[in-house]
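Proteins fold. Shown next:

***
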Amino acid sequence: MLDKAGLIQSSVAEKLPQEYIDRCDDLLTLLNTIWKSPMILFQKLVPSDLNELDAKGGVYVIGMLSSNEILYVGRTKNLKRRLYTNHLMGNQSTARLKKYLTSDELLREFAKSMEAVFTLPTSAEYDKASSYKLAKEFLRKNCYIKFLEIDESRLRGLTEGGLAYAFNVRFIEDEH
């Protein structure tokens, strides 16, 4: 029986396999492709504008207009439903990004600029409905979406993870 050190040494090649290097090159291509894709503004987002994307699956990024900071990377089978129904109009169970925003300093700063009252979820005065409404307004005024069509589910998942890492997203789904 091999000891732990012997097992590790015998199971790992000394040189990084070329297929892994090639995937990193592919990720760089995906980064450039999504970055150059058309920008969809949340402020103009209505379902009819997304009809051409209705049944398209892929990976999307949500970024800030002012800084290009990427807040969120997600994947979906149906872009229209995910962006409009979930992210913009959704409730706590479907609108992850709004949920993340309600616990973040970004929303507090936005509330100050709008002269709105906002308390973080840890406060006894926290009003979930008002904070979700404020998060929706934040998205409308400050954010955009870029989308990359990808048909295969597994590839969407891999791409989502790679882009989230590369863009160093602000919000990432908690482990479960």
Summary: The helical segments are 4-11, 18-36, 79-88, 96-102, 105-113, 128-142, 153-167. The chain has a mean pLDDT of 82.
